[in-house]
Design goal:
Cofactor: Zn(2+)
InterPro entries: Amidase_Cbmase, Bact_exopeptidase_dim_dom, Peptidase_M20, Peptidase_M20_dimer
CATH superfamily of the largest domain: Zn peptidases
Number of domains: 2
CATH architecture of the largest domain: 3-Layer(aba) Sandwich
Number of helices: 12
CATH topology of the largest domain: Aminopeptidase
Family: Belongs to the peptidase M20 family.
Keywords: Hydrolase, Metal-binding, Zinc
GO molecular function: hydrolase activity, acting on carbon-nitrogen (but not peptide) bonds, in linear amidines; metal ion binding
Strand content: 15-25%
């Protein structure tokens, strides 16, 4: 399966992946998943947004009361120029875990579904975990159909409104167990191939709009300029400093400049801050401190700045009971994560959730250098199969 996926959406230049939703590479991946489901005799369900769940259901037994199923899986889309493992490892491992359970002779007493949530990364329409948010009803279609990608295409132009209501594709789900490559070095430091997640830090995406005055790069004296790029530059440095002081995370990873000319002072700079902290209070303090310093600098530069919170996700604590059940009989370490995941959305919407992590030898993620060793991936499959067994699959 991994060999089949490797070339899809891969850049010949960087080796990274471009698997944005509703583009050819991601559509090919969705078709591949449907083929894998069919090859295993799994019943595939797809909602209007494109979220997919392939079900392995138990044989009906007269008089037995049906139990809500266990959902596993992850996502197949990527960040721009991303790595191979973030998302697809959870989907491939889920299919492989079903193969392993069947090899063990398992006869499930409750259904197990392999899910693929769409637009998890938010790399096209800007809102992370959009598929799982819609599936759980965490966001309303009316609030997101107008989201636009970098080319100005609206979400509502590429997909239909969900037609089955919130929770339709999740109606059979009793709990969710997501396997994911670790996006850090904790398992490396602990010398362990597999771990469990305790929870997710609160995090948000904030748009900073810096406005100044376009002017000539050669004839305009430095003291006569109203240059929003200077205000942005100081803001990026302030974010770095504030995050380091507070043990948080702050990243300006995307900017848009107008008129974007080499020989022109910009009139506008728009930049997006990704901020994360251990608690909601620390996150709010971090963003407030950055905004304060940015506003003060704008006053000195003759520019202005406006800050808009485009999305904010609260802290998530995964179900302790479910995590204990998944980890029963193993001594896997339990770790917090600073990355957002579909499991966090389902947990926040009331679906008990747990996460398994597979060791990342470098800790690098959202990059072509993202990697996991085959032996660790196979250990992850074993761990997921054991977890599903512990949950009655």
């Amino acid at each position: 399966m991994w060999r089949d996926l490797a070339p899809i959406g891969r850049s010949a230049t960087s080796g990274g992946y471009f698997r944005q939703p509703w583009r050819s590479a991601e559509e090919e991946l969705r078709a591949w998943f449907a083929e894998q489901a069919a090859a295993r005799g799994l019943a595939l369900e797809t909602d209007a947004f494109g979220n997919q769940v392939a079900w392995w259901r138990p044989d009906p037994v007269p008089g037995r009361v049906a139990t809500l199923g266990v959902l596993t899986g992850s996502h197949l889309d990527s960040v721009l120029d991303g790595g191979a493992y973030d998302g697809p490892l959870g989907v491939v491992s889920a299919l492989a875990a079903i193969d392993l359970l069947r090899k063990r002779g398992a006869q499930p007493s409750r259904a197990v579904g392999v899910g693929v949530f769409r637009e998890e990364e938010g790399s096209r329409f800007g809102l992370a975990c959009l598929g799982s948010r819609l599936a759980t009803g965490s966001v309303e279609w009316a609030d997101v159909e107008g989201l636009r990608d970098r080319d100005g295409v609206a979400l509502g132009d590429v997909t239909d409104a969900p037609d089955d209501g919130a929770g339709g594709i999740l109606a059979e789900v009793g709990c969710f167990v997501e396997l994911h490559v670790e996006q850090g070095r904790a398992l490396v430091d602990l010398d362990r191939p597999v771990g469990l997640a305790s929870g997710i830090w609160p995090h948000g995406r904030y748009r900073f709009d810096f406005t100044g005055r376009a002017d000539h790069a050669g004839t305009t004296r430095m003291e006569d300029r109203a240059d929003p790029m200077l205000t942005y530059a100081m803001t990026a440095l302030a974010a770095n400093k504030q995050a380091r002081l507070g043990g948080a995370r702050a990243t300006f990873g995307r900017i848009d400049v107008a008129p974007n000319g080499t020989n022109a002072v910009p009139s506008r700079v728009t930049a997006w801050l990704d901020a994360r902290a251990e608690t909601a209070e620390l996150l709010a303090d971090l963003v407030a401190a950055v905004e304060k310093q940015s506003t003060e600098r704008a006053g000195r530069d003759g520019t202005s700045v406006a800050v808009t919170a485009e999305s904010v996700s609260r802290a998530i604590s995964f179900s302790r009971d479910l995590t204990d059940q998944v980890g029963a009989g193993h001594d896997w370490p339990v770790l917090p994560t600073q990355a957002g995941h579909d499991a966090g959305i389902l947990a926040g919407a009331g679906h008990p959730s747990a996460m398994l992590f597979v060791r990342n030898p470098t800790g690098v993620s959202h990059s072509p250098e993202e990697h996991a060793e085959t032996a660790d991936c196979l250990a992850g499959v074993e761990a997921l199969a054991d977890a599903l067994t512990s949950l009655g699959v």
